[in-house]
Structures are given as structure tokens and as C-alpha cells.
Amino acid sequence: MSNDQSALPASRRPVDPRGPRFGAAITTVVLVVALVFVETTLGTVLIAWQTLVFALGALVGLQAQPYGVLFRRVVRPRLAPPAELEDPAAPRFAQAVGLVFMAVALIASLAGVAIVALIAVALALAAAFLNAAFNFCLGCEMYVIGARLRRS
Amino acid sequence: MTGVWIVLFVLAAATAFGLWFQRNNGRVKDAPSSAVPMSADDDPPADIEPEPLSAEAEALAPVLEGRLGERATMVQFSSAFCQPCRATRRILEEVSVLVPGVSHVEIDAEENLELVRVLDIRRTPTVLFLDRRGVVRKQASGQPRKADVVAALGELLPEEGPDFSI
């Protein structure tokens, strides 16, 4: 890594890998509550909120993702500096995958198709939990298979 | 109440999968194609014409041209969205400095999709351990531990012992 990282645009700057993992932990909690209250207004509001969070992370960049902002402002100043930084491409890809699931959940939820919303939120919860608890890298697992399918 | 049961089911299933994943991720296994590897004793002297190589070795040969290690080669497949690939690169580079005659080659999976298909690479990082003829003998998918990498190379190079003379 070169020293002129500040010259990169905010969306390309390397990030503290603990940030995305912290965000996945909050996402896990939000989605657990959303699933428990899935057919109520609270459930729909939480699904809409999480969709917005993923949309900001995927479309604007990690620097705009609310949980990432919380990590940088509140959590990171209390921690030791990270051992190494991470390219933001991988966590941003994970945000995009989350956005797809949550957008489906939000549309289904608003349309009153509870079963589709349940399944979509459950899949997003599994991914977020695996990321937070086991540092499971969805991008690594999906990317090559996706590339093989696209060009075959 | 349905939601509560779904939450419990998802967390239990994900935990089971996560534990399985942690146990198996990065383990070095015998390559499926190395079912009939030549034992150390059959290894022909270098001056004898080598027997035809496997399809895998033939597919790899043009990519590895000139980068094959004298004694063994670690071929790492990586992708852009992959943090463990960077950690794996660091481990393999350390090992290639540590063990004489062993080289480390990193290949971008996306730029070499044809090769990825022939070798049936499904995840990144995947590391192939090639003997000195360029035959795939062992492989690990996921980030391997340094000790496992050293052990795999040790199994690959039994015939040469501690004597590094050529």
C-alpha cells in the first residue's frame, strides 16, 4: 500500500476490516427483530431501514454506510489501530448482495406477501450472521462461481 | 411466533455451517487428479523423457511458463473481492523464501476463466501444489495455515531429503 491513500476518492480508500464485521453484527440484530415482527409495521420499517443501509453502502460507498459511520466515530477511536487495512471492494460487494435480498423483502412486505419477505430476510440474516460470527467472506465464495456462470 | 422459530432455525443452521466451514477451510488435501501419483521411488531421473502429463498440467503449462519452481510450485488463484487471498499471498511468499526451489505464482481467476474451468476452481483463494514436473499433487481451498503449507511441501519433496544440491 502506498502512502498517498488520502489521494484516493473516499469510496476507494482501504478500510479497517473490523468495521464491516461490526456492521454485520448490527445488521444481524436488526434482521432478528425484523423477522420476529415480520408482519407488523415495526417489521416493515426495519426492513426498509436495512434496505436503505445496504443501498448507501453498495451504491454510494462504505464511507456513507450508517453502521460504518457509527464504527468510525464511536467504536474505532476506542480500539487499537488495525493490524492491516482491507480493500473496500469485498465488503461493498457484500452490501450489494444484501441490498438484493432486502429489496426483495421490502417489496414483498409492502405487497403483503409475507412468505417471500420471510425467506428473503432469513437468507440475509444467515449471511450477516456468518459474516459477523465466522468472518465468512461471501464475495470470495460467490465471485468465481458467478464469473464462471456469466461467461460459460 | 413464526418469526421466532425462523430466527432460531436460521441461527442454528448458520452456526452449524460456520463451524463446518472453519474446520475445513484451507485444509490441504490430495488433488483429485493425483490418484496415481508416481511414488518417490518411481520418479524418473531428470534426463529421461518424462511421461505425458495430465490435462490439468497441460492447461497450466502455458500460464506457468518460466515460473515453475525447481522443486515445487504453489499456484494461487485469487479474485478481486477477496481479503483472505491477500493473507494467503503473504503466507505463500514467506514459504517460498523459506524453502529453496519452491516458487509462488498468483493467478487472477477472472482473467483466466478457461483455466479455472479446466481445473474446476470454485473458490478463491485456491492453492494448487505442483511437483517439479508441474503435476498438481495437492490443493487447498480457502486460506491455508502456514504450517499446513510447509507440511504439504514436505510430503511433495520426500525424495530430495535435506540435501539441496541439484
The average pLDDT score of chain B comes to: 84
CATH superfamily of the domain at 27-34 and 52-159 in chain B: Glutaredoxin
Low-confidence stretches of chain A: none
What is the overall shape of chain B?
Answer: elongated
Instruction: Round the Cα radius of gyration of chain A to an integer and report it.
Output: 16 Å
The arrangement of helices and strands of chain A along the chain is HHHHHH
What profile does the largest beta sheet of chain A have?
none
Low-confidence stretches of chain B: none
- SS strand fraction of chain A: under 5%
SS-derived structural category of chain A: mainly alpha
Q: Please tell me the CATH architecture of the domain at 27-34 and 52-159 in chain B by its name.
A: 3-Layer(aba) Sandwich
Class per helix and strand makeup of chain B: alpha+beta
Cα(first) to Cα(last) distance of chain A is 35 Å
Care to count the β-strands of chain B?
5
Placed side by side, the strands forming the largest sheet of chain B appear as 1-5-4-2-3
Tally of discrete structural domains of chain A? 1
Which whole number gives the mean pLDDT of chain A? 89
One letter per element, helices H and strands E, the order of chain B comes to HEHEHEHEEH
Count of β-strands of chain A? 0
What can be said about the biggest beta sheet of chain B? 5 strands, mixed
How would you sum up this structure, described in words?
The complex is a heterodimer of chains A (152) and B (166). Chain A is mostly helical and 152 residues long. Chain A has one domain. Helices cover 70% and strands 0% of the residues of chain A. The longest helix of chain A has 23 residues. The radius of gyration of chain A is 16 Å and the shape is globular. The relative contact order of chain A is 0.16. Chain B has a domain of 116 residues: Glutaredoxin. Chain B is elongated, with a radius of gyration of 18 Å. The termini of chain B are far apart. The mean pLDDT of chain B is 84. The chains are: A mainly alpha (152), B alpha+beta (166). Chains A and B meet through helix 1, helix 4, helix 5 and helix 6 of A and helix 1, helix 3 and helix 4 of B.
